[in-house]
Every structure is written in structure tokens, then in C-alpha cells.
Amino acid sequence: MTKIDRINEHILREMSHNGRISNLELAERVGLSPSACLRRVQELERSGIITGYRAVLDRTKIGAGFVAYVAVGLNDHSKASQEAFERAISRAPEVRECHNTAGSIEYLLRVECADLPSYKTFHTDMLGALPQVNGITSYVVMGSPKDERA
User: Fold this and answer.
1) With a threshold of 0.85, does the pTM exceed it?
2) How far are the Cα atoms of 4, 37, 110, 150 from residue 9, in angstroms, in the given order?
3) What whole-number distance in Å separates Cα of residue 28 and Cα of residue 22?
4) Can you name the CATH fold of 59-140?
5) Which residue, among 94, 92, 77, 70, has the nearest Cα to 132 in the 3D structure?
6) What Cα–Cα distance (Å) separates residue 56 from each residue in 19, 20, 114, 148?
7) What phi and psi values does residue 132 have, to the nearest 5 degrees?
8) Residue 72: how many CB atoms within 10 A of its CB?
């Protein structure tokens, strides 16, 4: 298992802000030689701590500027019901995140659509049509002053 020491924490912090940072610049920022820095990054990748790299998109520029968090309660708490719900949700392109939660709801979804009418279609025709769903509460995002998702 890879040790997360102060230097590895610094590497991860820098890379989470800019996954395309050059090894030379990263090494300079964390105070290592380029070869030592590269070895550490490769070990973080090999150990599964760094699981991938992706682009951070401006969703409004690709027609998905309407964002809502949706709390979903199920009418049956069985494993089969949860698996059926998760299969259905995995096929919905509007659902960008799906989290199984503890508490008064079973799932919290991050849903991204073009606009309110397209969200209504998703809400009614997809989510509301699932037989496992007992309750839906939508929280429309009006702004995101801090968002560190990659």
C-alpha cells in the first residue's frame, strides 16, 4: 500500500487542481526532482489512489445548464429493488451522479438537463415511471460557489 505522506498529499492536491500539469512543473511545486516526482505519481496510479484523468466541462456550454439534486425514496428496501433502481438510473444520461445514502432517503442523484422542461420530462417520464420509486424531492441548483468535482 502506498503511504500518503506530506509530499504525496501535496502531489495529489496539485494534480486535483490541474491533472494536466507537467511533471517538471509538478516536481518544482512539491520540491522533488522530476524523476522522484514521476516515480511517486506512477506509484499513486499503480496503487489505485489516482484512478484516472478527465476533463472538467462547462455544462452550460454543451446544453446541460439546468442542475438539480434529487432525493429519491424507494417503496421497497430489498436488494432486488435497489439493484433494479440502480440499473435503470445507470441508463439515464441526465443522471451524472447516483449515491446510495443512509437516512430518510435511499438515493441522492445529481441530474443535469438542458432546461426546466427537459428536467420535467426526465422527472415524469423516467424517474416517476420507475415502480421502485416512492418519493421524489428536487433541489434546483441556483449557483455553485464551490465545486471541486473533476
Assistant:
1) no
2) 6, 12, 28, 17
3) 10
4) Alpha-Beta Plaits (3.30.70)
5) 77
6) 10, 11, 18, 10
7) -80, -20
8) 22
Q: Residue 64's pLDDT is what?
A: 85
Tens digits of residue pLDDT in 98-136: 999 999 999 999 999 999 999 999 999 999 999 999 999
Amino acid in the structure at residue 39: R
The strand ranges marked E within 5-106 are: 66-74, 95-100
- Model confidence at 42, pLDDT cuts 50, 70, 90, reads very high
C-beta pairs of 87-91 under 8 Å, 24+ apart in sequence: 88/126, 88/130
- The CATH number of the structural domain formed by 6-46 is 1.10.10.10
pLDDT band of residue 150 (cuts 50, 70, 90) is low
* CATH 1.10.10.10 boundaries in the chain: 6-46
